[in-house]
């Protein structure tokens, strides 16, 4: 009594024709009459797609035209998170089922247009040129007479001898009625055949990812820098088990830590930068530490010359002089008379 029994499904199994398989799945197929979407086995059984990607492909294929299928729109419609949805869309885009392109509208706004194809492999095959449709014959057309093959001439039989006593008034035979004249329509030019496509329709590839910047390296990797860097990287797992690195990864990351130490960065500051605000859990510690060592490296410390205040330019100050005539003070590099006294002397001399 505690286990519910699906009697409808049990009754449907009894109605299936033929013997049922002893193991595996048994399909009870009921034909849909409305609200259904046709999904091909190339998508449902794709060996390179994850189950999440196939599920979102079926969901996108069942949506009507013009429905928003971005990451945030799908996350608001379905219970999955944005990270899972974004990963599934990237899988579909890599296998050609999905294409996202940024286009500019007439009003200047830039939007993302998403194109979904249920059979991307069919786009790689050349399409056959369709024959022009034949126009059904109308009433005013007369089909061209079929020319019969030439046959050997046949001699007509000789007419019989006239009757010596023919009927003087034979009954007149009715003349055949003339056939109605059919007017042929003017000849029409044949419809131009569509040009054959030389290249198959292949969706454009996605934009390539930018190349990762190289790991920073010191000017000279001394044994002392290598020893401190190795000890710092090996000690990260003591502060957080997620940062357990292998010996090969430690050996690859030593030059990056040595570049930080060469720039006078304290080991505690390096450890704090590498382990603070890390995701939980850290799935790929080597990639995570390499990324932070590359992107968060500080600049070199400035030296005393860079920190010194700029020297002020020397300004030459003209000293004060006492006029020999009026004893007023005036600026001049040499002693003598002021300007007024020089003018008076000039006027007196004139």
Task: Kindly describe this structure.
The protein has 350 residues and is mainly alpha-helical. Among the domains are: 9-16 and 25-120, Orthogonal Bundle (Arc Repressor Mutant, subunit A); 223-295, no CATH class. Helix content is 32%, strand content 6%. It is built from twelve helices and four strands. The chain has helices spanning 7-14, 41-44, 51-62, 71-77, 82-94, 223-234, 236-239, 247-262, 267-275, 285-295, 304-307, 339-349; strands spanning 98-104, 110-116, 320-322, 329-331. The strands form two sheets. Strands 1-2 form a two-stranded antiparallel ribbon. Strands 3-4 form a two-stranded antiparallel ribbon. The chain is elongated. The N and C termini lie far apart (141 Å). The relative contact order is 0.06. Residues 137-151, 164-170 and 175-185 have low confidence and may be disordered.
Question: What attributes characterize this protein structure?
Answer:
single chain; 350 residues; mainly alpha; Arc Repressor Mutant, subunit A; two-stranded antiparallel ribbon; two-stranded antiparallel sheet; 12 helices; 4 strands
Q: Quick one: overall form? A: elongated
Q: What would you call the structural class?
A: mainly alpha
Largest sheet: 2 strands, antiparallel
Mean pLDDT: 78
Query: What is the fourth-level CATH superfamily of the domain at 9-16 and 25-120?
Result: Winged helix-like DNA-binding domain superfamily/Winged helix DNA-binding domain
State the CATH architecture of the domain at 9-16 and 25-120.
Answer: Orthogonal Bundle
Under CATH at level 1, the class of the domain at 9-16 and 25-120 stands as Mainly Alpha
Please report the distance between the alpha carbons of the first and last residues: 141 Å
Helix content: 25-40%
Provide the succession of SSEs. Answer: HHHHHEEHHHHHHEEH
Number of helices: 12
Order of strands, widest sheet: 1-2
β-strand number:
4
How much is the radius of gyration in Å? 49 Å
pLDDT under 50 segments (min length 5)? 137-151, 164-170, 175-185
Strand content: 5-15%
CATH structural fold name of the domain at 9-16 and 25-120:
Arc Repressor Mutant, subunit A
């Amino acid at each position: 009594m505690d286990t519910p029994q699906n009697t409808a499904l049990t009754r449907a199994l009894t109605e299936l024709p033929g013997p049922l398989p002893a193991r595996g799945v048994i399909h009870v197929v009921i034909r849909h009459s409305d609200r259904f979407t046709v999904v091909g086995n190339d998508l449902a059984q794709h060996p390179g797609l994850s189950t999440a990607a196939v599920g979102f492909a079926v969901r996108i294929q069942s949506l009507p035209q013009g429905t928003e299928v971005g990451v945030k729109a799908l996350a608001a419609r379905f219970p999955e998170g944005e990270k899972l949805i974004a990963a599934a869309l990237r899988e579909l885009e890599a296998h050609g089922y999905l294409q996202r392109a940024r286009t500019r509208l007439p009003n200047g706004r830039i939007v993302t247009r998403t194109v979904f194809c249920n059979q991307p492999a069919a786009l790689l095959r050349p399409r056959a040129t369709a024959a022009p449709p034949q126009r059904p014959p109308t009433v005013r057309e007369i089909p061209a007479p079929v020319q019969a093959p030439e046959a050997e001439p046949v001699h007509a039989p000789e007419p019989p001898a006239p009757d010596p006593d023919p009927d003087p008034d034979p009954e007149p035979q009715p003349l055949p009625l003339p056939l109605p004249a059919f007017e042929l329509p003017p000849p029409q030019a044949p419809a131009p055949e569509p040009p054959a496509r030389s290249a198959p329709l292949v969706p454009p590839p996605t934009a390539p990812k930018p190349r990762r910047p190289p790991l920073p390296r010191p000017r000279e990797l001394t044994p002392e820098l290598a020893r401190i860097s190795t000890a710092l990287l090996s000690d990260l797992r003591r502060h957080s088990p997620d940062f357990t690195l292998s010996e090969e990864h430690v050996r690859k990351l030593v030059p990056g830590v040595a570049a930080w130490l060469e720039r006078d960065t304290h080991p505690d500051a390096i450890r704090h930068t590498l382990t603070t605000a890390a995701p939980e859990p850290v799935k790929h510690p080597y990639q995570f530490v390499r990324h932070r060592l590359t992107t968060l490296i500080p600049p070199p410390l400035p030296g005393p010359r860079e920190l010194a205040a700029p020297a002020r330019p020397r300004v030459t100050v003209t000293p004060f002089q006492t006029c020999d005539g009026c004893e007023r003070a005036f600026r001049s590099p040499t002693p003598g008379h002021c300007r007024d006294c020089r003018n008076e002397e000039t006027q007196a001399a004139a």
